[in-house]
Amino acid sequence: MKNSAIFLDRDGVINVDKDYVYRIEDLEFYKGSIETLKKLQERGFLLFIVTNQSGIGRGYYKEEDYLNLKKEIHKRLEKNGIKIQEEVYCPHHPEINCDCRKPSSKMINDLIKKYDIDKESSYMIGDKTSDIKAGQGAGIKTILVKTGKAGKDRKYDVKADYECEDLLSVSSLIHY
Q1: Has residue 57 been placed in a domain?
Q2: What's the CA angle centered on 115, arms 130 and 6, to 5 degrees?
Q3: Is 99 among the domain residues?
Q4: Annotated active-site positions, please?
Q5: Do the bridges between strand 45-52 and strand 84-90 make them parallel or antiparallel, or are there none, so unpaired?
Q6: Residue 42, domain extent
Q7: How far apart are CA 122 and CA 158, in angstroms?
């Protein structure tokens, strides 16, 4: 039997986007995000984080800084009984035109293949049009949350399958 999954952007969805979040002291989870992740996990979804981290490629912070924050996020989530199956990231500057940076669906597609994910029962949750485009490219349902950038970047002409105020309101939408 295939697995159902929730793919999440990080900054602006799970935690407050403070423009290039890489320091542990800047980590602030949105109200209800931890409870929502726990509920989704209890409903049988595997949880993945799929994030662009162009601050590395731009030289704003080092990859080590990102990895330290990633470790801290996972530690705090694990304290609450939440397991992130895997977190993948693109460290490249947007002008590199790599194949992993969202809106490319490569990071999601790689996880779908690796974890035998059922696309029909899986979702991508993001706050930017690049997140929605990546989810659509992978053939999964998409949810735009109105936290973070709230889709106002308008970089790509896409419409999410669903829109929610925040991650907390997603749990009433998704049932497995």
Answers
A1: yes
A2: 45
A3: yes
A4: 9, 11
A5: parallel
A6: 4-170
A7: 18
Q: What CATH code is carried by the domain that includes residue 95?
A: 3.40.50.1000
Count how many domains the chain has: 1
Q: Exposure pattern of 86-105 as b/e (b: 16+ CB <10 Å)? A: ebbbbbbeeeeeeebbbbbb
Residues 6+ apart with CB under 8 A from 32: 166, 167, 168
Under 8 Å between Cβ of 135 and 123:
yes
Q: Which residues pair with 84 in a beta bridge?
A: 47
3-state secondary structure of 126: strand
- What would the two tokens of residue 167 be? 């991650």
> Can you tell me which residue has the tokens 């049988």?
44
Please check whether residue 37 lies inside any domain of the structure.
Answer: yes
Q: Note whether 86 and 111 are within 8 A (CB).
A: yes
| Mean per-residue pLDDT of the chain | 95
Question: What is the residue type of 84?
Answer: I
pLDDT band at 108 (very low <50, low <70, confident <90, very high): very high
Spatial distance between the Cα atoms of 139 and 120, rounded to a whole number of angstroms: 8
Mean pLDDT across 126-132: 97
Cα torsion through 28, 140, 102, 38, rounded to 10: 20
Element (H, E) at 64: helix 63-79
